[in-house]
Amino acid sequence: MDNKTMYRLTYGLFVLTSAAEGRGSGCIINTAGQVTSEPNRISIAVNKANYTQELVQKSGKFNISILSQDAPFSLFQHFGFQSGRDVDKFAGYADCKRSANGLYYITNGTNGYISASVEQAIDLGSHTLFIAAVDDMDVLSAVPSATYAYYQSSIKPKPATQSAPAGKTVWRCTVCGYVYEGEELPADYTCPLCKHPASDFEKVTL
Question: How far apart are CA 123 and CA 77, in angstroms?
Fold first, then answer.
């Protein structure tokens, strides 16, 4: 079985934002979509390890900012490579505005946002699936949406491995490009940059 088959599915990329108990945060997700049009409902799946998941669970509301093809890699670093438990991601962050529900949405590198209220939460093990009613939404630009494939080919920097000797084996994170040097990657290894597991690494022989 080739696990990379999953990459053939069409994924968008989004910044999920929420707030509870006076604190807000955001994270990158790739699973969001419309599930019904009448009434208008969307679904999102969020890893339970993300602080933003806790905020959605507590508050019952969230915004989805739809990332476009002009999204800079720094946006992914800011919302994807650090935890809201450790830093306030909106402290000094200028590329955002508040929507009618009081939550932030991202204004740079996005082409639209959707505000929603949770109607149902389903425990999926590692993730929570939220089904939510759409409360508000707006188009921000005409730039096409960034798919996961576009992120891999055109946004994510190519890893610098030129200095490694020929024939050396490394493991490369398919999400952020971080390189782990070694013949074997520990099964419980977690990427130090984007926090993705060993299953998201690919073996590369230079």
Answer: 27
